[in-house]
Amino acid sequence: MKYHAAQFRAARAALGLRTRNVAAELNWSLRTLDELEHADDEGPRQPSDAAVAKLVAFYEGLGVTFLANNAQGVGIRLKTG
Q: Measuring CA to CA, which residue among 37, 76, 73 is closest to residue 55?
């Protein structure tokens, strides 16, 4: 599945997390997280597959489901309860 920067921002916001907290949990700099949250398909610096996988696993571990692109676009779902 292709992940989008907006999904990473949405996941963090839905969980009520700050960038500095997520970066600290992953042992990343704020710049690394910022690059993932603002990467676009045309940018010169694209995040590594390993970094994307680490961030996805982190959010999934907190109950986030990443929704694939469909007619309604991409998104996330947060597990409740």
A: 37
DSSP-derived 3-state class of residue 56: helix
- The per-residue pLDDT for range 36-78, each reduced to its tens digit, is 998 875 666 678 999 999 999 999 999 999 998 887 888 999 9
CATH number at residue 53: 1.10.260.40
**Which residues constitute the domain of residue 59?**
5-78
Residue 12's φ and ψ, nearest 5 degrees, are: -65, -45
Give the C-alpha separation, 18 to 72, whole Å: 27
Q: How far is CA 47 from CA 23, 38, 51, in A?
A: 15, 10, 6
